[in-house]
Every structure is written in C-alpha cells, then in structure tokens.
Amino acid sequence: MAYFVAPDSIVRRIWGTADTVLFIFAGAAAEFALNKAVDWLYFTGRLPADPLGRLFSTVDYARRIVFADRVGAEKAIDTIAAIHGAVEKKRGYAIPDWAYRDVLFLLVAYSIKAFEVLERPLTGPEHEEIVAVFCRVGQRMGVPGLPGSYAEWRAAREQHLAQDLALSPHSTDLYRQYRKHLGRPRYQLLRAVQGLVVPASVRIQLHLPDGSWINPAVKFYRLTKRWPASQWAKNAMLPSEYQARIHALDAAPVELAPPRDAAAVAAPRGCPFHKAVPSA
Questions:
Q1: Which carries the bigger pLDDT value, residue 227 or residue 25?
Q2: Following DSSP, what letter does each residue of 49-88 receive, concatenated?
C-alpha cells in the first residue's frame, strides 16, 4: 500500500503522540495570532467562537494526512484546498501565497520544537523529512515558492518571522478567547508552554513568559511519561470534556473517518486557516 507519509517516518512518530501534538498547537496558536493574515480567521468567526473545537478539527485533518494511505491523504489535502477556495470566493479575493507558506512553515517549526522539547534532538535526515512532508502538502495544494531542503526552509522561516508577524487587535482578541474557553489556570499553562516553544521574537511581542518555570515539570514529565500517573499532564491542558479526544491522539489512526468539517466544502463553516493551523 502506498502512503503519503512512510510508516517509519519521524513525522508519524511526532504526530502520533498526544503531548507532542498539544505542544505543536500551543506554539502555532501563539504565532498565528501574530500573522498579518490573521484577519482570515475573523471572516466567518468560527475559530474565535470555538477555539477548542477548531483545534480538534485541525488535528483530524493533519492526522488524516499523516496516517492515511496516499489516496486518503490526498483527498484530505484536496478538501482543505477546496475549503480555502470556497472561502476565498465568498470573500472576493485570494489568501496570499505567503500566508499559505507561513502556515506550512510554522507546522514544520513546531513539529521540530515540540518533539525536541519532549523527546530528543532530531537528526539531520529527520529535519529534512519533516520539511519534505509538509512541502508535499503545499505542492498538492498548489502553493508556490516552497523550500527544497531544511537549510532553505530555515532561511525562509527567518524571513517570515521578520516580515509577516505583527501584534494587532485580532491578536488580542484571540488571546481573550483562549482565556475564556480554557479558564485562567489552563490559560496560564498554555502561555507557559508557548513561551517554552516559540521563537524569542514571538514571545516578546505576545509578552509570554520564557518557559523557565515550567521547564522542571517538562523534564520530569519526559522521565515519567510512560507511567500511568503521568497522564495528568495531558489532562491538565484542556477541559475534562476533551480528555477522551486527547487520549485518542495516542492511537495510530491508520483508518480515519472523514473529518467533521468535510461537508463544509460547499458552505464553509470556519475560516480557511482553521484546517491547517491551530486555535489554541
């Protein structure tokens, strides 16, 4: 059977673990709040209204691409592209190419950072594999100007961080929604995790903590995460009604049901980026 992502790929290991996935989306939620294309989140308003629901919708799509066979993965990517196109048509103009690249770049960045914080340093070939997988997603969607190597991605990533991020009223409102839906203790935990994984420029703009106070807990978790008692760490990040879905992220979903928002292609229910980027 042909796969979009090889069964032994490091990308499957990264996206097959609940704690790593949650760290990826914590970091990406911070960075995308600063993206100059964040106004697309507010065109339909679904993500600000339901950030946790959008998180799991995003996870459904990402894991379908990573774990399904090639045909299933390509169908999921085509659905993402169709949803984007439908919202662009409704709004009357296109999402810029650089915004699509930014989304792919931050998924590469936080896949790497989350795994290295929670597991171990990645090797050179593993870096190349992560870049290659997400660039294949972009190529399938028709995104131009994608890097051909990890070194090229790093250079483009630095340019993105310098040019495409800015604090805006949308940034402030998104964080207001994160706090509303998470509650104060989980919101503070989110900010601590974000401070641990985001680049310094993102941390400074969002006034995030540097992550130092949570570092000892993360190190302890790395040593004990195989113990049943360590599951509290995953449960602590999101409200109790999401715990079953969090634990389900640890299962390798080779055969996945269609994502819940697949029917949104004809009449999109959320902003285009909620399928490819996190909400909190």
A1: 25
A2: H-HHHHHHHHHHHHHHHHHSBHHHHHHHHHHHHHHHHHHH
C-alpha 84/C-alpha 40 separation (Å) is 10
d(CA 166, CA 209): 18
97-101 contacts: CB < 8 A, separation 24 or more? 97/143, 97/144, 97/145, 98/37, 98/160, 98/164, 99/35, 99/36, 99/37, 99/40, 99/164, 99/273, 100/138, 100/141, 100/143, 101/138, 101/143, 101/145, 101/146, 101/156, 101/160
Q: Domains of the chain: which residue ranges? A: 10-275
Enter the tokens of residue 152.
Answer: 């090229």
In this prediction the pTM is 0.85
